[in-house]
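Researcher: I've been going back and forth with a colleague about how Ubiquinone biosynthesis O-methyltransferase might be arranged in three dimensions. Neither of us has a model we trust, so I'd like an independent prediction. The organism is Denitromonas halophila, in case that matters for your notes. Sequence below.
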Amino acid sequence: MNADPSELQKFGDMAHHWWDPESEFRPLHEINPLRLDWIDSLFPLQGKVVLDVGCGGGLLSEGMAARGAQVTGIDLGEKALSVAKLHLHESGLNVDYRLISAEAMALEMPAQFDAVTCLEMLEHVPDPASIVKACATLVKPGGHVFFSTLNRNPKSYLLSIIGAEYLLRMLPRGTHDYAKFIKPSELARHCRSNDLALGELTGLTYNPLTRAYALSKDTDVNYLMHTRRHV
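Model: Here is an independent structure prediction for Ubiquinone biosynthesis O-methyltransferase. You can compare it with whatever you and your colleague have in mind.
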């Protein structure tokens, strides 16, 4: 199984806070509109069939469903999925949540989705290349795959771990493991080897003075990558 038991435990222990915008998931709540707008601008979601890999408590999944997509969300965290399913009763949205790995889903439903999203997940798994391969298998020829993760360099370590986890305390200590961060060149190589053509690369930055996130050309820390499967 391409999952770290300690990572599943860590996020499972926090799962009941997933939809609390003032909790340790506050950064996800704040970047979610930016992520949604970015995806929707490159691939209009209305009426599309979309898979959200590593959906967690369902923030992105529900956001895409609210924009008219038919969404399936998959994760290996049972507690997070339980929270995601419960929140549907509050939101009234329709998302099909499943406890299954990306690799198993790829065997079951190859080339079935118009788009696949895999955001803030690759830096938490033992074998990110396997996830990229599964995402490429799951999307239809000509379909879109969206990734986001953390770059690996001294600036990223300083801002995302020392700054975010220790100084600003935006995230619980131990949320990220620097050794698992992925350079854009590395992710791009995984994509190319799986017939995913590179599209747009954009950065996500945080201003501690205004406490606001923004999309930018600065990919030194957080970045999003848009790819498209060859026809």
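Researcher: What would you highlight for our discussion?
Model: I'd start with this: The chain has one domain: 5-229. After that, consider the following. The longest strand covers residues 139-150.
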